[in-house]
Design goal:
This protein is mostly beta strands. The protein has two domains: 111 residues; 382 residues, YVTN repeat-like/Quinoprotein amine dehydrogenase (Methylamine Dehydrogenase, Chain H, 7 Propeller), CATH 2.130.10. The chain contains one helix and 43 strands. The strands form nine sheets. Strands 1-38-37-2-3 form a five-stranded antiparallel beta sheet, with no helix packed on it. Strands 4, 5, 34, 35 and 36 form a five-stranded antiparallel beta sheet that branches. Strands 6, 7, 8, 9 and 10 form a five-stranded antiparallel beta sheet that branches. A hairpin with a 7-residue loop joins strand 31 and strand 32.
Length: 508
């Protein structure tokens, strides 16, 4: 007896026969126990873009609805399982809402909110939802020229597709542009904007109490960062109790800023980190992969190619540092620059959906999917739709547990100007794993055809079939895609006894 696998034969008293639901492709595969007593190989479900496009707004009869496509935003209300769409048209902000039952969309009619804003083309709006307060916060630009614009914010309530403006909008600051907003889902939110006279990125904190909002004084994030920015994309990272916002530096580089909320006082700007390999661009986004604990900063790379740079929190989460090299998301020749880029991390799939749109009318809007500590393209750039006149605009995550992500698009491009015609919504199903810590059963001892029976080494046994390249004494975990590695996950497989033998950990 020269091999450890001879000392510990496969199964070691824990080898049990099961019927397979779906093929178990080979030995050495992690499997789950289904509710009907069958087993299935661990893996990801197929990603899918729903072919059903829902039209939440129709301007087909209008020829004067000129508006920049940066003016539409979508937000998901989990308490109502409903998506709300907001856009700038004429001198008002309009809205509609929609639900999706898995096969079709249902929308409310477009409603004029009657809240006045400028008729200028290209006014920016943004919206966030606070689950604890069950209210929304909308921010927008008001005014015609750069020197006369201001940033305003209002509190919203929602009821069965209807939006009520609790107030008509508080003026955050004069001479300001490009607002964006992020909520901590606990009654506090941050408004980010450019202070036009100084091209300076600023933040203002708002605290919701019933039907009122208290705003703190503005705080400068960094100076010489503006460049008439359309927005500063921002997110709240609950795991770190920090806000992240993408700003710029005076040399045209991208900056990732860390903001800490201070109860009852102005937020604290903890750090500004220059992100190399990225350049200042109107198309930009930021996301946080909680599974990989990775910050993903999206912008152009100097050649109008959409690019992502991974970062991590350092120290006491008050700063970030770059990790690895920048990843170009799409390197094909593009006639014109990147027009829009949005990203959304899906916690159920532990992956990030990215959507792209380009200024060229010959290049369709596309989506792709990223995953991992070093962002890896797991779903290659794929067309959202074939109509190249429609330009993608916004992205919002759908209900937890379904993997649905809503995609809001609209616009028709003519003579270099974007004309507001129709608004569409689609759903994208993220690749979802079927394994959990409670349903993981063990390791297959053989390939098993669907509906056939075969042996599984269950938890507490010794798996010694179909495994290779293990590191003795190392802990191994089941990954979402069905591989086994030393990368920690919620599903622990066991400890390697040799390069080919795994002692499966027993858990109830």
């Amino acid at each position: 007896m020269t091999n450890l696998s001879d000392l510990f034969p496969a199964g070691a008293g824990k080898q049990v026969s099961f019927t397979a639901s779906g093929n178990v492709t080979s030995s050495g595969k992690p499997v789950i126990l289904n509710s009907d007593g069958t087993v299935s190989e661990v893996g990801l479900s197929a990603a899918a873009l729903d072919s059903v496009e829902g039209e939440f707004n129709d301007y087909s009869s209008s020829t004067s609805a000129t508006s920049d496509t940066s003016s539409v935003r979508a937000v998901y209300n989990p308490d109502q399982d409903r998506v709300y769409f907001f856009w700038h048209y004429g001198s008002q902000i309009w809205y509609s809402s929609g639900t999706y039952n898995g096969t079709s969309w249902s929308f409310t009619s477009a409603v004029n909110s009657t809240v006045a804003c400028s008729t200028a083309v290209g006014l920016n709006i943004d919206v966030a939802y606070d689950s604890s307060e069950q209210k929304g916060i909308i921010v927008w630009e008001d005014g015609t020229g750069y020197a006369s614009r201001s940033v305003r914010a209002a509190l919203l309530t929602f009821s069965s597709g209807t939006v009520t403006w609790v107030d008509s909008g508080t003026q955050i600051n004069y001479y300001s542009l490009g607002p964006s907003v992020a909520s901590d889902n606990n009654g506090t939110f941050m408004v980010f904007w450019e202070y036009y006279p100084f091209n300076e990125a600023n933040v203002t904190k708002g605290t919701i109490s019933g039907s009122t909002v208290t705003y703190e004084s503005r705080n400068a994030i960094n100076s010489n960062s503006g460049y008439y920015s359309s927005n500063y994309p921002a997110i709240y990272v609950a795991e770190k109790s920090r806000y992240l916002v993408q700003t710029f530096n005076s040399s045209g580089g991208v900056v990732c800023s860390v903001i800490e909320d201070n109860a009852g006082t102005n937020p604290t700007v903890q750090s500004n980190t220059n992100i190399t390999n990225l350049t200042r661009s109107e198309a930009k986004s930021i996301a946080y992969d909680a599974s990989a604990e990775t910050i993903m900063v999206f912008a152009e790379n100097g050649s109008t190619y959409p690019t992502v740079q991974a970062c991590t929190f350092t120290g006491t989460n008050n700063a970030v540092t770059q990790v690895g090299s920048a990843v170009v998301l799409k390197s094909a020749t593009i006639a014109n620059q990147l027009y829009s880029l949005k990203s959304q991390y899906n916690s159920d799939a532990a992956q990030t959906l990215v959507t792209l749109s380009f200024s060229s009318t010959s290049t369709p809007s596309q989506y792709l999917v990223l995953s991992g500590t070093t962002p890896t393209i797991s779903v290659s750039p794929t067309d959202l739709y074939t109509d190249t006149t429609n330009t993608f605009q916004d992205l919002t995550e759908g209900p937890t547990g379904t993997g649905r992500t809503y995609i809001a698009v609209y616009g028709s491009q003519t003579s270099g100007n974007f004309v507001l015609w129709d608004g569409y919504a689609q759903t994208y199903t993220m690749p979802m794993t079927n394994v959990t810590a409670s349903n993981f059963l063990g390791i297959s001892d053989e390939a098993i055809s669907s509906a056939a029976s075969g042996n599984i080494t269950i938890k507490g046994g010794i798996a010694a079939t179909g495994l290779s390249s293990l590191t003795p004494a190392s802990d191994y975990y089941v990954q979402d895609d069905g591989t086994i590695s030393t990368v920690s996950s919620s599903v622990k497989a066991g400890k390697a006894l040799s390069a080919t033998v795994l002692n499966l950990e027993y858990t109830s």
